[in-house]
Amino acid sequence: MAHGTAAVAKVDSPRSPYVRRKTTRGNYELYSWVFMRASGVVLIVLIFGHLFVNLMVGDGVHAIDFGFVAGKWANPMWQVWDLLMLWLAMIHGTNGVRTIINDYATRDLTRGILKGLLLLAFTVVVVLGTLVIFTFDPCPPDASAELLASFCTA
């Protein structure tokens, strides 16, 4: 390239027929787009329900403590509610970040590394969050009485 000239990318004529440049994996992106819309609607219901119960009912934010969470998670409905909220939010967010990585990471290696890190973060948060929800014991057997919630028998 001579000094003062710039490399010019070849752009197809607007009237030229569309030629698919690379193969696609079926309708994955379409299903991903539909999932984002549907999960967004469900997440709005889950999140506003969560906020209403935690902030508006009873004493509001001042009542949120270990005993409040323990009491909520004693009910399987709230475990499922929080599990759905965790899983949908993580899948929704991960899918959104995956789309951003696809849009802005230009090199295949960079895109692969970023998606791998994203998948690792998703897996760690979902596994740990799910374990916390289902293995949470508000009344551990060897805890001192002053640390236990009021409904626990010491």
UniProtKB/TrEMBL annotation:
Tagged with keyword Cell inner membrane: no
Gene Ontology terms: cellular component: membrane
Entry GO MF terms: metal ion binding
Transmembrane segments: 30-53, 83-101, 113-136
Superkingdom in the source lineage: Bacteria
Keyword check for Membrane: yes
A matching Pfam family: Sdh_cyt
Annotated protein name in UniProt: Succinate dehydrogenase / fumarate reductase membrane anchor subunit
